[in-house]
From TrEMBL:
Entry's family note: Belongs to the FGGY kinase family.
Organism field: Cyprinus carpio carpio
GO molecular function, one term: D-xylulokinase activity
Gene3D superfamilies from the UniProt entry: 3.30.420.40
Protein name: Xylulose kinase
Amino acid sequence: MAGGADSCFLGFDFSTQQLKVIAVDGNLEVIVQSSVQFDSELPEFRTRGGVHIHDDKLTVTSPALMFVKALDVLLEKMRNAGFDFSRVKAISGSGQQHGSVFWRKGARQTLNHLDPQKHLHLQLQECFALQDCPVWMDSSTSDQCQFLEAAVGGAQRLADITGSRAYERFTGSQIAKIYRSKPEEFSETERISLISSFASSLFLGDYAPIDFSDGSGMNLMDIFERRWSQVCLDAAAPQLAERLGDLTPSAAVLGCVSLYYTERFGFAPSCKVVAFTGDNPGSLAGMRLQEGDLAVSLGTSDTVFLWIRDPRPSTEGHIFCNPVDCGAYMALICFKNGSFPRERIRDECAGGSWERFSAALRSTPMGNHGNLGMYFDVMEITPPAAGVHRFNAEGQRVSWFEQDVEIRALLEGQFLAKRVHAEKLGYKILAGTRVLATGGASSNKDILQLWRQKQEHRSPRRSETLQNLSWPSDPHQELKRFTRR
Ligand code: ADP
Ligand code: XUL
């Protein structure tokens, strides 16, 4: 696509807590950034952290219409700030992985004929068979997971096909749950999108295909053949293939923006819509990760991922199709207790201030005098454990730490877990391994200090150098006391 300072490209991120956009020029310089925070800027949806946690504490959803309204608000913010949409050559972006949107029969017609005089959210309010989208934080589908694994011949067999054993948040089990618990809504459903393909559908004015990378997070796709796995589809729900539509490469050009955007905002009719993908695959592409690098994303969730050529799916962690190179893969481990416990402990131990939180990290030594903690505020994914677990230097369980010790224990525990689980999966973290950090908490240099070696930190947002940190001599020993697998 044409480069140069005059061209401009928009990248959107439909994430858990907010909708973000950046505009880059043809030299990849960021020229505009903006965002809409769901909780504070769209209070009518009454979310906390962008989600609704239901009474069972396991079901977690976000309103479909909130994402749509966020796009209305964001584009208007940009227009009011004088952004020239006519310069935009192409749009793409990412979405939180695994979340799903259930479009009601007739929604395609509405998407095809959007009225440029009206807000999107007013036109699409009747378009969803389910008002609330299951999102990646949901862990309510254990029964469906068991059923899916049994249907294909076990957890390892499912991983051999789809790259992962059955996970509660993966879309296949979520669809199976809706099919069984809400049969009317399911039969009213004309198309199921991931959050990413839902976002590209909004720009395209038509249903957009699911891309290979984000499609790998569903337990429904054969990641080696890059097509739906019939045995997995059949285990989830009937006539699923037609409800899911086609799959597409992650960098495919899907078409041009719909008339709605040219007429309402002045986009050029030639502005391309490139497939959206999952936020982690999007980070891999955006960080220009290379083979041998390790990426750590510190967003609402924490993830560790790397580029691999020779995938060996196992019953821990995930293998996704690589969004950049169709012959490659990415391996990923996801930790649900990322930003939320950091924010909780910041509020409890640092008066709500990241600056005081950082000062506590600076004032405590590496290794925290042997004090170690695991903070699973909600049921963790890796490992599947819950609760807060603190141990003193003698390995005895304790019920509290001094505030500064608590802050360091949280961070060291989070990073130890990343390292231990990555090594368990066979990832080699060698002296020369580059560790690249991204996500909201990567703006905090004192958090980045916690990584093990001097590493180059190269995120799209920042370019810093990580300093030394030595780890407790045997992290496996430290962790195996309280991780279940
Ligand atoms: P997501 O894309 O999942 O919505 P982001 O990658 O944008 O999340 O990260 C948002 C998170 O970044 C916030 O929830 C907040 O906890 C964290 N964050 C922002 N600034 C800091 C900071 N200075 N120190 C630590 N964490 C921070
Ligand atoms: C990855 C995962 C999370 C979401 C967060 O498997 O569940 O990282 O993508 O947005």
